Amino acid sequence: MVTAAQQQTASAPDTDRTFPEGFLWGTATASYQIEGAAAEDGRTPSIWDTYARTPGRVRNGDTGDIATDHYHRWREDVALMAELGIGAYRFSLAWPRIQPTGRGPAVQKGLDFYRRLVDELLDKGIQPVATLYHWDLPQELEDAGGWPERATAERFAEYAALAADALGDRVKTWTTLNEPWCSAFLGYGSGVHAPGRTDPVAALRAAHHLNLAHGLAVQALRDRIPADARCSVTLNVHHVRPRTDSGADADAARRIDALANRVFTGPMLSGAYPEDLFKDTAALTDWSFVRDGDLAQIHQPLDFLGVNYYSPTLVSQADGSGTHTSDGHGNSTHSPWPAADGVAFHQPPGDTTAMGWAIDPTGLYELLQRLAADFPRLPLVITENGAAFHDYADPEGNVNDPERIAYLRGHLAAVHQAVQDGVDVRGYFLWSLLDNFEWAHGYSKRFGIVYVDYPTGTRIPKASARWYAQVARTGVLPGA
């Protein structure tokens, strides 16, 4: 049943909508996707450097060696944000730039880069929001076993302490992990992300040790940052819908919800893994890698939950009809969903982005409502939302992207409706500030509100950048 409020979010609003005073407007990026300078100032390879340099892994053989050259053009990028009136910038620290082997003391040149970046942001009145991990694990730690091993979580806590010691006097908002589901299940299950392993048990072990890394890192941060600083984690919470009202499809949705969402929200936010997850995966593992005391370490108080949303997930019981993809992530060989072979994934109806993802703002509204019901005292921040389209610069050097503006308008209307209906949403970070290296898609997909001409590095704000700047400055979402 679709409510009237949900129906309103399905299309662009026809009247202006004003967001609450103090609502935070930002943009987001990730270190490997934009920085480049892959071998400068002591940085050593991450798993994504290794993965991208492996033939056949990334479209066109693209790598992040140069990316958008943000390491050298950061002042220009901060000036762009200031020109657009962006209030906050969510960026990630590159672990191998700060601690190249994943062990031992920090490299000061790496820390100095982030010190300069943060100082410039503060000077321009832009709030820095630092993410400790956006998928670029030092390769040496992967060589030692990677996230399936407990030691990696312990090393992550040490890295978090180094970052907090260096930047804790400047950065007041910290995120431990970005989308640990992708790190665990795409990196170690389906292999379509670095490090490219295809072992379902390793994926489940990685999920647990990412949970543990989060909890240990929060403790390390709290020991070092001021009392008024904030700690969070960002999850790509899947909005899972059953294809029909049948019990079989409802059970398929339950299974995927456990693997996609509750494997993280359970330990992090409630202090326990869901029992149905253990039962569903019992044929694979007895979960003996979860040790006494782990859940208490993982379950740390948070100041808000970061939510990444792009598109809903539509599932059913597998019926052999051939109308579904094998895993919902474009991989027909290895699934990221351990012990869920009986679940089929379907393309949701409606228009799609250049990624082939369904455009559905109602999914965001419903997801926010669910999170508010499940965790009623935990504020929410949209830490990623955006879309890739086939953008190009016209002969006059302009980049017009009306599809992106329509996407943003619809999703911001969904956020506004959720706020009006009592959901505690504190901010919105648009993905992404810049066109960039889009993981296994290389440079073929453009998510930015700023167009990047890759051969020259030239930045061109798209029409969506000007549109979003107006929303960010005024706090008003204009009607269609």
TrEMBL record:
InterPro entries: GH, GH_1_N_CS, Glyco_hydro_1, Glyco_hydro_1_AS, Glyco_hydro_1_beta-glucosidase. Residues 318-335 have a biased composition (Polar residues). The active site is at residue 384. It comes from the Bacteria. Its EC number is 3.2.1.21. Pfam families: Glyco_hydro_1. It catalyses: Hydrolysis of terminal, non-reducing beta-D-glucosyl residues with release of beta-D-glucose. Residues 318-345 are annotated as: Disordered. Keywords: Carbohydrate metabolism, Cellulose degradation, Glycosidase, Hydrolase, Polysaccharide degradation. Belongs to the glycosyl hydrolase 1 family. This is Beta-glucosidase. It comes from Streptomyces glaucus.
